[in-house]
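Amino acids appear as letters; backbone shape is given numerically. Here is one record.
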Amino acid sequence: MSDGRSLVRLADEIALLERYAAIEQLRLGARLRLTWELDNAPVDALLPPLLLQPILENAVYHGIEPATAPGDVLVRIERRGDRVLARIENPYQPEHSHRAGNRMALANIRERLMLFFDAEARLDSRVEGARYLVEVEIPYRTGRTEAAP
C-alpha cells in the first residue's frame, strides 16, 4: 500500500480493482457477472489510493453475496472534459439484503475526496429501479504523484 496522502494513477487503481474482482470471481463463480467499461478511462488521471476498491467490494458484498441468482456488477470509468467519472452499480433487492451496512465506507470515501479535492469532487449513491449506483466524480489531473495539501 502506498502513502495515504499521495495520489495514484487511475491505471494502478484499475489494476487493484481487477485483482480484487478476480478473487471474488473465484469465490462466487457464475454468481458474479462483471462488466468493465474502461475504454474511455483516463489511466493517467490521479486519485486517492483505494478509492474505488471499497465501492466494488460493497457492490459484491451487498448486491451479489445475499442473492442466490447470478448478479451483474458494472464498473464504468470515463473522462468527461476536465472530469473523471467512475460508476459502479450492482443489483438491489432489499429482500435479499443480508446486511444493512452502516454506510461507513461511503462516508470515509466522501471524507477522503474532500481532503484531496475539496468541493471539486462528489460521491453520490442511489437506488434506480433494481440497481444500486455509486458515482464518484473528480477533477481530471495528471502529473507525477503529489502529496495532498
